[in-house]
Amino acid sequence: MENPFVIKSYESKELFCDREEELRLMLRNCINSSDMTLISQRRMGKTGLILRLFDELKDVRPDIHTVYFDIFASRNIDDFIKLMAEATMRAFPTKTTMGEKLLEFIKSLRPQLSFDNITGEPQLQIAYQTAHEKEYTLRGLFDFLDSQNEHIVIAIDEFQQIRDYPEQNMEALLRTYIQQTHNLTFIFCGSKKHLMADIFANEKKPFYSSTAFVSLDKISTESYSTFIRQLFNDRHRKITDEALEFILDWTRRHTYYTQQLCHTVFANGSKTVTIDDVKIACEQLMKQGETVYLQYRQMLTDKQWDYLIAVAKEGSVQQITASAFLKDHKIGTPSVSRRLADALCEKGLLNDDIAINGTTYSLSDVFLSHWMERL
Asked: Which of 75, 77, 79, 55 minimizes the C-alpha distance to 66?
């Protein structure tokens, strides 16, 4: 029996939990051509939400086309252009009228065009002589899409990555090109909140106040419990209230880790899932991750490693400079604590969740956090 707990992006709305409020808001914004900034922790489900949104658009507004690409692995403007062009070609197959026009445009860039032997997806290599040529190509790609007189929604995932590009004018370039389009709607997604906030909420930056903000928080206990129970019931399985409560508490209702734990519990095959079955799955997941966790030990300084353990043992820490926290874990001075927290946030190992009542720090990887609690 196929496992209904999806851990790789998105499959169908039946296997997608909640996010109804966010979906309605984003659907309305897309239909009304309002650009958005979608921010959440990594693995909180923003990519799945984007693909769920695109699925919904197919049903309610099939005239709106959609393009998605992730720039997390990109290093410069060359990579950005390549990823955007490839994603656009996937969205508009060559058998369609739009696809034919797109292929002709791509050919005008004199690329090396090939297709993946396994997936069949297009792969591009474009040679540039100067930085001006790159900017001209990027501008041309936006102009081409806008000139088709078709409403196109373009989602760019991990958008904060442009801050690491050697091209210092990337934000200004993109803002200029995007501002001049009429038929394109953009969704800028990111997982580094402080960088995304600086890009879109800093009045000194090009994208300031240019988008509507959408933030993803944890799915409610009630919604997640109903969803999990239903998926088990639909496949003639049962799960006890105690087991459900343990799952949502242990994973902290973080989307990816909840899905992963439920996926493992389901795969283990119990017809009636008890809390003991869930605990067995928890042990399996921590054991599976142990090799990676020990690699982190090699990558970090002793103080950084000890700091991670301290936060893991606390579960979450709001006052990282509080004397009790510093003393209990032998961290040192408040400035040392801030420096360690900043470094680990930069490495992606700590989350810093900013709220009205302060910033709360916790490990990004819930399974790693539980593993470290034992050290």
From this structure: 55
- Separation of alpha carbons 153 and 163, rounded Å: 23
Helices (H), 12-130: 20-31, 46-60, 77-91, 97-108
For residue 13, give the amino acid letter: K
In contact, 26 and 214? CB cutoff 8 Å = yes
CA proximity to 366, closest of 240, 218, 238, 194: 218
CA distance 34 to 167: 27
3-class DSSP assignment, residue 351: strand
Answer yes or no: are the C-beta atoms of 214 and 37 closer than 8 Å.
Answer: yes
Instruction: Give the pLDDT confidence of 85-106 residue by residue, as tens digits.
Output: 999 999 998 888 898 998 888 8
Do 189 and 157 contact (CB within 8 A), yes or no? Answer: yes
Q: Tell me if the pTM is above 0.90.
A: yes
Indicate if the pLDDT at residue 311 is higher than 80. yes
**DSSP letter string, 185-234:** EEEEEES-HHHHHHHHH-TTSTTTT-SEEEE--PPPHHHHHHHHHHHHHH
Q: Looking at the DSSP assignment, which residues form a beta bridge with residue 317?
A: 361
Q: What tokens were used for 153? A: 């929604």
User: pLDDT of 147-164, one tens digit each?
Assistant: 999 999 999 999 999 999
For 55: left if phi > 0, alpha if psi spans -120 to 50, otherwise beta; the answer is alpha
Residue 161's φ and ψ, nearest 5 degrees, are: -60, -25
Q: How far apart are the first and last CA of the chain?
A: 38
The pairing of beta strand 212-215 with beta strand 358-363: unpaired
